Amino acid sequence: MDISVVIPLLNEEESLQELHDWIAKVMQSNRYLYEIIFIDDGSTDTSWSVIEKLSENNTEVKGIRFQKNYGKSQALDAGFELAKGNVVITMDADLQDNPDEIPELYNLIINENFDLISGWKKKRYDNVITKNIPSKLFNAAARKTSGLQLHDFNCGLKAYKNEVIKTVKVSGEMHRYIPVLAKNEGFNKIGEKIVQHQARKYGVTKFGMERFVNGFLDLITISFLSKFGKRPMHFFGLWGTLMFLFGTTSAFYIGAYKLYNVFKGIKTILVTDNPWFYIALTSMILGTILFLAGFIGELIIKSNNKEKHYTIKEKLNY
């Protein structure tokens, strides 16, 4: 199979038929073998009914329906697990991503051997105050932290080699950072393509300003995970050891100083009246806690927990 198109969605009943027809037209005109995987992330409208109708007598249309709303990352993870195409393309269901971009994205992966191509919505039709400016700040921080020189990390329109999406595991709210996750797994040929952004035709956006706050928090998380995700003891153990050594050294000094003064007959305060005693004690406790955190982190990694954090209610054409 040439292409799998993975489309996570939430309450997009009005756009699904038009989006399907547009994608099918592009695929058929280029004679691609393809599948369209719709992941209904707990919609409360008739989105699933539309998907069921599209899948009737149409084996190219696949559907996954979540028990409830789990989030875009979980929806993408479910779609990635089932995608069979040599090239996997993700796009949003709101018609703001243009399916006419698919052939060029496909060629960049197949003919130019890119591992991943990220879309760049250079000209946007979103609100400048609530989306464009925060997006620029977010992307600048992501570039600085990750080392990837992409202009639009959060663009839903991306293309991947199949092996990339089978290797990268997306959870939490990490869908914004799939290029970073891919880079951390050794997929280094990551490119960018300017894509057309279209104004929303139906409905309203499902994301508010809180996504940028969450985005920055996720950026801190992934920055840590990229360095210490597979070796937490190197971080927690190091700082725990340093703090414990500082605490024990300070406690030893306080005790030695007290004994020296007693031996010399010099009047001095009680050890428990010395503020440095409590600083030393706190450092020893925190050092022990940090060391244990690293040890527990290592145990969790070794357990290799692959539990899914979503429940699929039903599937179509699987």
From TrEMBL:
Source superkingdom: Bacteria
Transmembrane domains' residue ranges: 235-256, 276-301
UniProt-listed CDD domains: DPM1_like_bac
Glycosyltransferase 2-like domain residues: 4-167
Any Gene Ontology CC annotation: plasma membrane
One Pfam family this sequence matches: Glycos_transf_2
One GO MF term: undecaprenyl-phosphate 4-deoxy-4-formamido-L-arabinose transferase activity
InterPro entries: Glyco_trans_2-like, Glycosyltransferase_2, Nucleotide-diphossugar_trans
Keywords linked to the UniProt accession: Cell membrane, Glycosyltransferase, Lipopolysaccharide biosynthesis, Membrane, Transferase, Transmembrane, Transmembrane helix
A GO BP annotation: lipopolysaccharide biosynthetic process
Protein name in UniProt: Glycosyltransferase family 2 protein
Species whose genome carries this gene: Polaribacter marinus
Source taxonomy: Bacteria, Pseudomonadati, Bacteroidota, Flavobacteriia, Flavobacteriales
